[in-house]
Amino acid sequence: MSDRAAQIFAETYDRERTALPGTDGWLARRRDAALKSFVEAGLPHRRLEEWKYTDLRQVLEKAAFVPAPAHEGAVVLPDTASASAFAAIDRHLLVFVNGRHRADLSKAVRLPKGVELHALADVLHEQWAKELVERRFDDARQSENIVDLNTALMRDGVALRIRKGIRLDKPLHLLFLAADDGASHTRNLILLEEGAEATIFESHIGEAAAFADIVTDVSLGDNARLSHVKLQDEAAGAVHLATLRTRLAAKSHLSSFTLTLGCGVSRMQNFILFAGEGAEVHANGAYALRAAQHADQFCVIDHATPDCTSHTLFKGVLDGASEGVFQGKVIVRPHAQKTDGRQMTHALLLSRDAAMNAKPELEIYADDVQCAHGSTVGEISRDAIFYLRSRGIPETQARQLLVSAFLDEALALVPHEMARDALKLLIKGWFADEGGRS
């Protein structure tokens, strides 16, 4: 199979390499090696098990992957609810336009002592940044070439380091706006040292036919706590590819939630490694799709140490000819006794043309564990619709009530109260569009 898209990315690297940060030293060598590895492997396709339902090679053959330009002139946020979803929350704000940080639009001031917030280029010489960029996960073999693409072409991103015992005083909001067609390659580095705490919002919006390639590397020290809320509502012609790689030390805690509303094609990858005992992860999400949207949720949780907990719940509604995917794997290593690993996905089809593919998996090599996984796919109950209509509720409103109730179980897991309310409002707004109804 031809992989013209991979060759175009390689040509982009040859043209852009001298303008990318870290053009000398270890990163230049790492970029060269990553590009070589990426070209040899090529873009993922359906013959790879992890990409069985999302042929990225075919998708990107049709996408715009010439680098998005540095946006000139005024920046106007889309007039959408998603663009202002977190506006009422007191927060630090970092804005990226076409993958480039815009200091003039950002508002991150008076950070607590011990909180270091930098542009990616400013920390690439530091050892902790090098360790995060070079880290690889054993059970992400088929997806590492996507990380290699990002490593070769990463141009900008945020680097957050919080020192031992420090708590970020209010949420940090990373707002990514696709203002022009083209590709952006963003790398975010997040290090929370022992006992540190932070809440991060991440939103992706825009009306351009863009390709967003994002890798976020997270390292949590002993007893550190991170809450992460992500919203993706980009244009129907956009492609969104995001990888979150997290390593948890002893007794650390990660609570993440992703709401997917936009994009023609999106894939969210989660790779989570327990590296210390007593750590806990809650990785949850929801999605609402219509028309011909395709959204792939992929999650690998590696219990490599004893006495750790992971709970995953994804719920989604699919209308039109949309397609949803959930692929999840919980791995329990031979010495990871006392593991509690649970994974569940539920999907509600609002149209006969909608489709859902679900493949939750368990790999258990220990005997003293509590693990479970499951999946359901179904339609709205006709009996429930009839019951509500018999009490004077119009059919459209009855459907909305049932779908909202279905998604509420997942939305209740958003790890920030005001953000939770904001995402619930977005779900209500999804119904206001006539396209959201069958």
Quick rundown:
By secondary structure, this protein is an alpha/beta fold.
If you had to describe this structure to a student in words, what would you say it looks like?
- With 438 residues, the protein is of the alpha/beta class.
- The chain has one domain (4-380).
- Helices cover 22% and strands 38% of the residues.
- It has helices at 4-16, 25-41, 56-61, 127-134, 144-153, 382-389, 395-411, 417-432; strands at residues 92-97, 100-101, 115-119, 158-162, 172-178, 182-192, 197-206, 210-220, 225-233, 239-248, 253-260, 265-274, 280-289, 294-303, 309-318, 323-332, 339-349, 355-364, 369-379.
- It has a ten-stranded mixed sheet, with helices on one face. The chain has a nine-stranded mixed sheet with strand order 3-4-6-8-10-12-14-16-18, covered by helices on one side.
- Helix 2 (25-41) crosses helix 5 (144-153).
- The two termini are 38 Å apart.
